Amino acid sequence: MHDPAPTMDKSEPPQPHRISAGKLMMIAVAAILLGVLMIKHDLSTDSGPPPQPVPAAAQPGASPPVAPSASPDPDGAPVMRRSQPVRIKIPRIKVDAPFIGLSLNASGVLEVPPAADRNLAGWYEDGVTPGARGNAIVLGHVDTMMGPAVFWGLGSLKPGDTVEIARADGSVARFAVDSVESFPKDAFPDERVYGKTTDAQLRLITCGGVYDKKAKDYTDNVVVFAHLLPPT
To answer: Which numeric CATH code is attached to 28-55+79-228?
Structure first.
């Protein structure tokens, strides 16, 4: 049995962590409104805290299969052409959700998927598309006031689990999870999560950790690190 969920004033949702547009350029990808990705749901539908990742040090490394490249690449890694994502599937945690494109608002902060739809993922549409070279950033609510949301089970993923992203050109980008980690929001590793890569990688981001009643927010962010698999 878990402790009762904290009471939250629904008129005052958690405030986002703001990162300037200048910093977005420096790290080459949008800052995420990590503070609002988890909005505490109503007590009547409390499902307890979301799954938390196993400490990174205890996670065995995943061994990606060796196969021909999806396209010519100096590093021999698969890379796909740019194409917008339309749907994400994560078989292990039964995720099957459409995408919505996210952009920066007037303050230079990335918007988040509407909380009214619990089964919706967002991606930074001015950044890398999943499967293309670089870090593709995908985010989703872990829960809302209506109950668990699309990325509720993200923290339970393990190295080797797969993520499938259907794209507008009819292709499917398949990723293998490398690690699932939790970071305090006040010590988020921007460069590691958002920094440039020479291959095609994916970052799935949501909220986790302990709910801070005073701040009306969660203390951590859960990040899934994954790489593109060769075509089958």
So the answer is: 2.40.260.10
Domain ranges of the chain: 28-55+79-228
pLDDT, tens digit, 9 for 90 and up, residues 20-39: 444 444 444 444 445 445 44
Q: pLDDT by residue (tens digit) across 194-203?
A: 899 999 999 9
The pLDDT of residue 229 is 97
| pLDDT, tens only, 61-96 | 544 433 333 444 555 789 999 999 999 999 999 999
Residue with tokens 């008129």: 11
